[in-house]
């Protein structure tokens, strides 16, 4: 499957998004990463705060079971 086909296939695109968001959620458990975000002022940016609100769906047990 070519990269163009992968992007046009919704299942592949959804899986890629799922994996990317899962990796990001897991990275938020790293205090050094959070410290870096805080030092850069990212934690206070409205866009970032909205993204964190969007990621709250990871609290649902159907998604939370994937978090290591």
TrEMBL record:
GO terms for biological process: regulation of DNA-templated transcription. One of its GO terms (cellular component) is mediator complex. InterPro entries: Med31_sf (IPR038089), Mediator_Med31 (IPR008831). Its main location: nucleus. This is Mediator of RNA polymerase II transcription subunit 31. Keywords: Activator, Nucleus, Transcription, Transcription regulation. One of its GO terms (molecular function) is transcription coregulator activity. Component of the Mediator complex, a coactivator involved in the regulated transcription of nearly all RNA polymerase II-dependent genes. Mediator functions as a bridge to convey information from gene-specific regulatory proteins to the basal RNA polymerase II transcription machinery. Mediator is recruited to promoters by direct interactions with regulatory proteins and serves as a scaffold for the assembly of a functional preinitiation complex with RNA polymerase II and the general transcription factors. It comes from Hermanssonia centrifuga. The keyword Chaperone does not apply. Belongs to the Mediator complex subunit 31 family. Pfam families: Med31. It is found in: Nucleus. Component of the Mediator complex.
């Amino acid at each position: 499957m070519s990269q163009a086909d992968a992007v046009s296939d919704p299942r592949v695109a959804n899986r890629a998004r799922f994996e990317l968001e899962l990796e990001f959620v897991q990275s938020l458990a790293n205090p050094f990463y959070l410290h870096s975000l805080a030092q850069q002022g990212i934690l206070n940016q409205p866009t970032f705060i909205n993204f964190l609100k969007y990621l709250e769906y990871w609290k649902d047990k159907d998604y939370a079971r994937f978090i290591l």
